[in-house]
Amino acid sequence: MRRSVTEVFGNWKRLLGWLLASALLVLLFFQSRPFHPKHHNRIVGGVAAIGRYDAEMGETVLKQHFHLLKNFDALVAVSDSLRRELRGLKESKAMAALRNEPQVAAAFERMEARISTELDMLERFKSNSAVLRNSLLYLPQAMDEALRTMSPAVQARVGTELRRLRQDVAGIYSDASSLDLARLHGDIDAFQLALEGVPESSLIGLRPVLRHLQQVSALEDEAARLMRELTLTGQRQGMSDDFAAAYDDFYQQEEARAHRHRMLLFAVALAMMSYATFAFYRMRVLREQAQQALNELRNQKIALDEHAIVSITDVQGNLIYVNRRFIETSQYGEAELLGQNHRLINSGHHPPEFFRELWQTIAGGKVWRGEVCNRAKDGSYYWVDSTVVPFLDEQGKPYQYVSVRTDITERKRAAEDLELYQLMIEKSGDPFFVIDDDDNCRMVYVNEAAVRHFGAPREEILTWRIPDWDPNFTYEMLPQHVEKIRQVQNLFIESVHRVKDGELAPVEISLNQVLYKGKTCHFGYFKNISERKRAEQALAESRARLEEAQVQAHLGNWDADMATGKLYWSEEIFRIFGYDPASFKPSIETFMSAVHPDDADRVRDSERRAEQTGILDVVHRIVRPDGEVRYVHERARSELDAEGQLARLIGTVQDVTDLKQAEQELIQAKEAAEAASRAKGEFLAVMSHEIRTPMNGILGMTELALDTELDDAQREYLGLVKSSADALLVIINDILDFSKIEAGKMELEQVPFDLRELFKSTAKILAVRAAQKDVAVVCRIDDVVPQMLLGDPGRLRQVLTNLLGNAIKFSHRGEVVLRVNMLAHGGGRVRLRIEVADQGIGIPADKLEHVFEAFSQADASTTRQYGGTGLGLAISSQLVTAMGGRLGVESEVGRGSVFGFEAEFPVGDAVLMESATGKPMPAMQEMTVRLNVLLAEDNAVNRRVALALLDRWGHRVTVAHNGREAVELSEAQSFDAILMDMLMPEMDGVEATRQIRERGDGVPIVAMTANATEEDRRRCLEAGMDDFVSKPMVADDLRAVLQRIESHSSGIVQAVETETFDYAAAIRSADPDVVESIGHAFVESCESQLAEIAEAIAGLDSAVLLRSAHTLRGLAGYFNAEPVVALARRLEGIAGRCDWAAAGDIDVMLRREAMALNDALSLYLAGQGG
Amino acid sequence: MQTLKAALVKLRGYRFLLAVLLAGVVALVWFMSLPKAGSLRAIPFEYAVEAGSEPIAPIPLDIRLDPARVVLGKRLFHEPRLSGDDTVSCANCHGLDRGGADQAVRSFGIGGREGAINAPTVFNSGFNFRQFWDGRAATLEEQIDGPIHDQAEMASNWPQVLGKLRRDGAYRKAFEAIYPDGITADNVKDAIATFERSLYTPNSRFDRYLRGDRAALSGDEQAGYRLFKELGCVSCHQGVNVGGNLYEKMGVMEDYFVARVNVTRADLGRYNQTGIEEQRFEFKVPGLRNVALTAPYFHDGSAATLEQAVRLMAKHQLGIALDEERQRRVVAFLRTLTGEYQGESLK
Questions:
Q1: Parallel, antiparallel, or unpaired for β A398-407 and A555-561?
Q2: B211 CB contacts (<8 Å, ≥6 apart)?
Q3: Which of A735, A685, A1057, A705 is nearest to A925 (CA)?
C-alpha cells in the first residue's frame, strides 16, 4: 500500500498537495454552481405566473365589478390559480433552497401575506358585489313597487327623488362605469331628506327600498375601494414585484459569486490540468528516461553479471542474492548459497584481522576494496578483486551489502607466473640483458648473472654502451652496428667481453629485437664460452689423440644402420680397408664386398648372433683393393628396433693381422710354457724334498757341531749358521706352504690336540723373543674351552706363531695377549674366537685391507724396519680360511692391532690324543741374500763384527770410516742400505744422514748406537734414518733389520720361483668386460711393452722403464695377473731408485710371467671369440 | 486488427492523460446539460367551462381522469377501515345513492356520535372553490383530513389507516400499480379526491336547456329560472356549480340566527377560521346542483324542504317575502338541476 501510493504520487508531500488541490477543486466546484437553474426557473416561473394571475385577477375583478361577468367562476378560477401557484411556489424545492436567504424569505412572506390579504379582499369583493348586484337588481323592482303602491302624497314628496334614484341604480347595473357615487349619494341624501316628515306608516312600502339603498350606498363605496385595491390600476404594485426584486437581487449576487468561483475553478482546473499534463509529460519523459536508464542498468547489470561476481548480503552477511557467475565460480547451487553466510566460501587464507577490517569499513558505511581468496565447493581456491558497497537507509545505516568481484585467479596466477619469469630471468645462471637501441645501445637491463659476469655494480653497468664492455666495438662503429642489428630481427654472434678485473672473456651473444618501454630494444643473453672454448680445444685434442690412438692401434670405429644400409667409418678404417676417405663411400654393401669370400658366412652369422646376444665379435679377413689380405677383428654392440630386428650396429674394427701372426707364435710359446710349468711343478716337488734334505743336514750338522767344543767365534758362527738355516727353512716353508695353498694342495689334518698345551707352548717359544723386546706375552684361554679338540695343531700353531710373531715384531713395549674365548658349543663342536692383541705400531686404515695379501706389509718401510717375507699373514689367512674361519684385523696406528679369527672345532677325545709335537720340523734352507751395504763405523772391533755378520749373510760391504766418507761413498755409488754409527769422528751419523737425505737419496739408513735411548732413536729418525740397531750388535737384530730392507730392496733375489701361476683362472676371475675391452690391446702390445722394458734396462733409461713398467702393471692388474703386477711394480721401484742391479733378473721373470699371461689371455679371448 | 492492437498498446502510455481529458469532457457536458427552464406544475383537475350569456354554466360532459385512481378511490371511499373502528366509510355520510349526502340534519360518525353540521353532497364537490361549509379546506385532499380525524366522524389517524391498508395485499398491489411509493396518506387522499372529482353530474335538464334545448324546461321551470335571476338568487348561486364559488353571510338582509334558539360554534362560519368579526356567520355558498336530492338544507339542516329553503333564503338573503307562486316556480326550476352520474340520472 504505502509503496503503491508513493509510486503514484511520489511522496507524502506530493500526495498532500494533490489532496489539497482536489479539495480546493471540489470546494470551488460547489461554490461555482449558480443558484440551481431549475430552482431559478421555478421561482422565475412562479413569479411570472403570480404576476400573470395578479393581472388576470385584476382584470377579472374589473370585469366583475362592471358586471361584465355573469358569475364568479372566472374569479374563482384565477384566485385558485393564484393561490395554487403561490402554494406550489412556497412548497417548491426552489423556495426550500432559499430558506436561508432571509431577505428573499422575508420578501416571499410579504408577498404571501399580501396575496392572502388580497384574496381575502377578493372574497369580500365577491360577497359584496353579489349583495350589491342583488340590491341593484332588486331596487328598480322595489322602487317600481313602492311608486305603484305609495300614496300620492308620499309620491309627491319623494316621487321625484325616488325616480331619480331608480335611474341611478338602473344605470349602475346596466353600466357600472357610469356610476357617479357622489351623485348617487346626493340623490340618496336628497331622497332621505325628502322622506323626512313623511309619516311612518306611509313608509312601509319604502322600507325595503331604503334598506337596499343603504346597502348599495355602503357596498358601492366598499366595492369601489376593493376594486381599486385589487386592480392593477394606479400606483398599485404587482403582488410579486417585491419578491421578484428581492429574489433578483439575491440571484444576481449568487450569479456573480458563482461566476467568480467558476472563473476560479476554471483557472484552478486549468492549472491542475496543465500541471497534470506537464506532470504526465514529465512522467513520460522520466519514465522513458527511467526505462532507458533501466535498460541501460539492465544491460549494465548483464554486463556486470557477465563480468563480475555479484552478491548481496544482509547486514549479518547472509546471502540474499547471487548472480550466475557467483554460482559458477563458487560451484555452489543457488539454493545452497541463499540464506547462507558469506563465510561459506571463506578460504581461511586471510587472518581474522583482515575480515575485521573489512567489516569495520562497510559497517561504517564506507566502500571496501581488496583482493580476497575464496574457496569453491570443490575446495579449490580462487582470488577475487572485491568491492563491497554498503547500501544505506535513511539513517545512514547499512541494510545491505553489495559485493562486486572480479575473478583475478588468472591474474594472480599470471602475476605469479610473471614473478616467476622475472625471477627466472633475474636469477638465471645465464646473463640476460636489454640494450636500448634508441639510446645509442645503452644497457637498460642486466640480470644478476650479467652483473656477476661484468663484475661491476649494476648502476654502473646501466650507464654502459656496447664499446664499454665489448672491445670489438668502438663508438665510431656503433651506428653501423645498430643498423646491422636493426636489419636482422635476431642476431647470434660471438664476441669478447671485458669482464671483471679487466679480463677478456669470449662470449656468445644472442640478440632479439623487441619493443620495450616503447623503444626499440634488444633483448638478449650471452654466454661466457671460455670453458667451452677450452673444452672445444680439449675435444679437438682428444679427437686428435683418439685419431692417433686409432692409427696406432689400427683400430677404427664404425656405425651401421641396418635398415638403410648406411655405414659410418672412422678414418682409420679407410686405411685398414685400403680406401681413400675422400672418394670412397662406405656402406654395408661395400663392406660386405670387401669381406674375404671364405669369411662372408661367418660375418653374417656373427650379425645374426648379435641380434640375439647384442654383441658382435668376429675376426675375419678382408681383401683390400690392392689384393692384400688382412685380418680384422670386428666388435660391435647391436641395437634392435621395436620388432626385435637388428637395426644398428656400433662397433670397432681392428687390424689384427700382426696379432694373428703373433698368435701362432704364442701358441707355440704357450705349449713350451706349459711344458715348463709341468717341469716347474715337478721341480717344486723335487725341491721340497731336495732342499729340505740338505737343510736338514745343515741344521743337524750345525746343532751337532754346536754341541761340540768350540771357541766363542766358532760357536758364534755355528749359531749364526743355525739361525740362518732356521730362517731359511721358515722362508722355504712359507713359500712352499703358500704355493701349496695357492695351488689348492693344502690339506688339513684332523687329529686330537690339547689346545691349551699347544697355545702355551707356542707362546712360550715366542715369549723368549718377546722378552728381548721388553714385551710380555700373555696367554688367556677361557676355562670353558674343552681340553681336547680335533683339528690340525701344526697349522694352528703356524698361524699362532705368525700372529704372535708379528705382534711381538711390531711391538716395542707392553704385552701381547693371546686370547681364546668360546663363543658357542654344542653338537660335539665348539666355536672359538682366537685373538692376538698387541700394543704395537698399528696399521694405517688404508692399509688394513692389504695386510692379508701376499708379499704385502702395511708399508714398504715396515718391511725395511721389521723384515719378513710378507707371506706370513697371507698364509695364516689362507690357513684360517681352510679351517673354516676368516682372519680379521682391527688396528689403530700407534695403539696396536688385534688379529683374530673364529673357527669351529670338533671336541676331541682325550684317548685319541697323540703327540702333535713329535713331527719333525721341516728343514730350513737359507736363501741367497746379497745386499750392497755401506758400513760407516769408526770403531775397528765393531766394524769387524758387523763385517763378519754381514759377510756371513752374504752381503757385499763397503766400509766408511766416518760420516764424511759415508756421504761421499753413498754419493758415488748406490747402496741397498747404510749402517751408520751415530758417534763418528769428523761427521757423526746424524749429520751424514741429513746430508744424504738432503741430496735426495732415499737409501735405507740404519743407525747403530750403543746407547739405545728414546732420545737417540728420536734424533735418528729426525735425521731421516729408517731404522736402528743397538750395540753390542745382536746378529738376529741386525739380520731382522736387514731383512726388512731386503724385502723392499731390489737387491733381493728370490731363491725359489713362484709356482706356475694359473693365469687362466685369474683371467676368469677378472671382470669379463674389462678383459674383453683391453685384452686384445694387451695381447697386441705385450711384446712391444716387454721389448721396451728390456731396452730401457739395457739403456739405463729409468723414465722409459718407469712408464712402460707402470703401463704393464696397470694392464696386468686388470687380469688379476699378480706375478706380473708384482714384478712390474719391482721394476718401477728399480726405475725410481735407478738401481739397475736386479733389473735384469726381474726382467727375465717378468717376461716369462707376462708371456704366460699373454698366452692365457689369447686363449681366453680366442675361446670367447670362437 | 493488428494495427488496432498496436494503437491500443500505444495508447496505453496515454492512459492518464486520456482519463483527465475524459473527466474534463464529462464535466463540460454536465455543465452544458443543466436544465434551462423548469416545467410548471400541471393542473390536476381541468375542465372547460362553456362560456355563455347565462350566469350558470353547464357541467362538462366528460372530464378525463386516471381511471385506475378513480377505481382505487372508489374502493377507499367505501372503505370502513378508514375509520377507527372499521365501521364508518366516506360513503356512510355521502351515499352516492342519497344525493351524495345522508339526508340527515347532522351525520353520525363511529359509535353513533353526532356531527356538528349538515353533511354537504359529495357530487360535484370538485367544482367547489373550498370544501366544508366554512371553506377551511382549500382542496378535496385537504378536506379528507377532516373526517378522518374528527372524533365524531371516523376518529382515526393516518398511521392507523395506513397500517390497516398495508395489511391488505390487494391494496398494496393496487397502490403499487399506481404509485411508486405505495400506500401513503397523500396517495390515499389523491385516490379518494380523484374519485370524488369523478362524481360530477352533467346533462341535467337545465344544462340541456342551457345548451339550447329550450324544450328541456317547462314554462314554469323557465319562469322559475327567470325568477331565480330576477329575485337575485343568481347573485350568489351562479357558475357551473350554481354556487360553491364564494362566501356569503347567512342573513344578509335579515338576521338568520336571531330566530335560532342556540347558536353553536358551527354557526359562526368563517369566523371560526379567521376570527374576523365581519366574517361571523359567513359560509360557503353551496352549489345547487341536484339540490332536489340533498334535503335537509342549510348548514344546520334547518330547512327540511326545498320550498322552505327557498323562502328562508329569499327572506334572509334577499329581504323578500316570497309569495307561493314565485316560490313554486323557483323550486320547479331548482328541480331541473338534477344531473346524471355515469349516464344515469341521480335519484
A1: unpaired
A2: B50, B58
A3: A735
Residue A328's φ and ψ, nearest 5 degrees, are -60, -45
The helix-helix angle for A657-707 and A712-743 (nearest 10°) equals: 140
pLDDT at A175: 66
Cα–Cα distances (Å) from A258 to A1074, A1152, B38, B303, in that order, read 139, 162, 20, 66
Whether the Cβ atoms of residue A447 and residue A421 lie closer than 8 Å to each other: no
Tell me which of A121 and A1018 has the higher pLDDT.
A121
Q: Provide the whole-model pTM.
A: 0.45
Could you give the 3-state DSSP secondary structure of residue A599? helix
Return the pLDDT at A896.
84
Looking at chain A, which residue has its C-alpha nearest residue B237? A71
Look at A65-69, B37-41, B57-61, B79-83 and tell me which has the smallest mean pLDDT. Answer: B37-41
**Distant-in-sequence, close-in-space partners of A1141: CB < 8 Å, separation ≥ 6:** A932, A974, A1050, A1051
The count of other CB atoms within 10 Å of the CB of residue A567 is 20
CA distances from B300 to A656, B249, B276 (A): 196, 14, 21
Contact flag A212-B282 (C-beta cutoff 8 Å): no
Chain A residues with CB under 8 Å of B283 CB are none
Question: Which one is catalytic: B46, B79, B114, B153?
Answer: B153
User: Which pLDDT value is given to residue A359?
Assistant: 87
How far out from the chain centre does Cα A368 lie? 31
SS3 A230: helix
Tens of pLDDT, residue by residue over B241-252, are: 999 999 999 988
Best CA proximity match to A576, nearest among A652, A637, A635: A652
Burial A619-645 (b: 16+ CB within 10 A, else e): bbbbbeeeeeebbbbbbbebeeeeeee
Strand, coil or helix: what is A623?
Answer: strand
Contacts of A273 in chain B (CB under 8 A): 20, 24
Summary mean pLDDT of chain A: 79
Contact B248 A127 (CB under 8 A): yes
Q: Say if the Cβ atoms of B282 and A283 lie within 8 Å.
A: no
Greater model confidence, A544 or A695: A544
In this complex, the residue of A37, A130, A131 whose CB is nearest that of residue B34 is: A37
pLDDT tens-place string over residues A818-866: 888 888 887 788 888 888 888 888 888 877 777 777 665 555 555 555 5
Contacts of A211 in chain B (CB under 8 A): 253, 319
Mean pLDDT of A1132-1143: 74
pLDDT band for B33, please (50, 70, 90 cuts). Answer: low
Q: Which chain B residue has the Cα nearest residue A48?
A: B40
- B153 as an active site residue: the answer is yes
Nearest to A280 among B17, B35, B43 (CB): B17
Which chain B residues are closer than 8 Å to A291 by Cβ? none
From the list A349, A342, A419, the residue with the least C-alpha distance to A382 is: A349
d(CA A828, CA A826): 5
Q: Is A667 on the interface with B (CB under 8 A)?
A: no
Helix, coil or strand: residue A1117: helix
Return the beta strands (E) in A190-238 as ranges: none
Asked if B318 lies within 8 A of A138 by C-beta distance, the reply is yes
Percent residues over pLDDT 70 in chain B: 90
Is residue A978 classed as helix, strand or coil in its secondary structure? strand
Contacts of A72 in chain B (CB under 8 A): 238-239, 245-246
Contact of A212 with chain B, judged by CB distance below 8 Å, is answered with yes
Using the beta-carbon criterion (under 8 Å), do B230 and A83 form an inter-chain contact? Answer: no
The pLDDT of A308-321, averaged and rounded, is 86
Strand locations in A546-645 (E) = 555-561, 566-569, 615-623, 629-640
